[in-house]
Amino acid sequence: MSSMKALELIEYEKFEYKEVPLPEIAANEVLVRVAACGICGSDVHGMDGSSGRRIPPIIMGHEAAGTIAKLGSSVDASKWAEGDRVTFDSMIYCGNCYHCNRGETNLCDDRMVLGVSCGDYRRHGAFAEYVTIPDHILYALPDGITFEQAAMVEAVSVAVHAVARTPVELNDSVVVVGAGMIGLLCLQSIKAAGCGKTFVVDLDESRLAVAKQFGADFCLNPSKVDVIETVVKETHGRGADLSMEAVGITAATQTAIRTLRKGGSCTLVGNIAQTVEMPLQEVVTRQINLIGSCASSGEYPACLDLIASGKIDVGPLISQVRPLEEGGDWFSRLHKGEAGLTKVILNP
């Protein structure tokens, strides 16, 4: 076998489901037969050229799972075998730089992301029948977890890493701004970490309904209620202990900061706008902690366990599971913001 089917972005906003050469496997890599791959928001932002990180031609896709089809010559055969069910980190880190040696693999100086092509590198991803993966970013799937659930682990890891960066204390109140997929996973993750009263803020009532399903105590639509006033009222007049911003725009960032009590902490997860306006004097005079959170750093095993145990439920976030050949159409529907679509997973 020398070729495979793949969904390739051949020019901005134009996909082709086509035959491409089977990727060559390096000594430290495994060839994974892809079973499921999710469409990430970053892929949608990349397909139209807006992010500058999906320069065509490129096979995108980094939220995936499958089975090992072949081992590279230096891969430890006592640890991995053909047929093993696996998932993998979206980020390929070197393991040797200053940050990797500190355990900050998400900050690796030489990191590459699967399915990304930018000015520095091009690394084809998993919207294909096969993908090559360095063995040091592989993770075995627990029994009972489906490939579709496993394809959600990258998104779950972003939320779990953000919570790990947040100074959570038992029964803390928390405001999650943004009830998209990452925001809803942040809600589940921070509840699992022991938070008490939870508030979720979004303009979309259908998203707030899902937040309610996941156990949010207050689901607040800024077009209908005064969010800051409500949060302050429900937290003994102080404001919330913690907030998590999962949008990445000025209005959401300001809400996340202004719903906090003095000395509270805001974890910034959203990443849409390059810059936002921040209420600097409020941050300084109210001694607010601002915490940035990037991707994940070693949380995959914990995330897989959380999914397998049901402590984090990804099922309601999966909107569609469709064949890879239909991928171009589903990208278009996500790009247009079709109502009711959260996560679309493609099966090669």
Structural commentary:
The protein is an alpha/beta fold and 348 residues long. Helices cover 26% and strands 28% of the residues. Strands 3, 4, 5, 10, 11, 18 and 19 form a seven-stranded mixed β-sheet that branches. It has a six-stranded parallel β-sheet with strand order 14-13-12-15-16-17, with helices on both faces. The protein has a two-stranded antiparallel ribbon with strand order 1-2.
Secondary structure layout plus pairing:
Blueprint: E1 3-11, E2 14-21, E3 29-38, H1 41-47, E4 63-71, E5 85-88, E6 91-92, H2 98-101, E7 112-113, E8 116-117, E9 122-123, E10 130-134, E11 138-140, H3 147-150, H4 153-165, E12 174-177, H5 181-192, E13 198-201, H6 205-213, E14 218-220, H7 227-233, E15 240-245, H8 250-258, E16 260-268, H9 280-285, E17 289-292, H10 300-309, E18 318-323, H11 327-335, E19 343-347
Parallel strand pairs: 12-13, 12-15, 13-14, 15-16, 16-17, 18-19
Antiparallel strand pairs: 1-2, 3-4, 3-10, 3-19, 4-5, 5-11, 6-7, 8-9
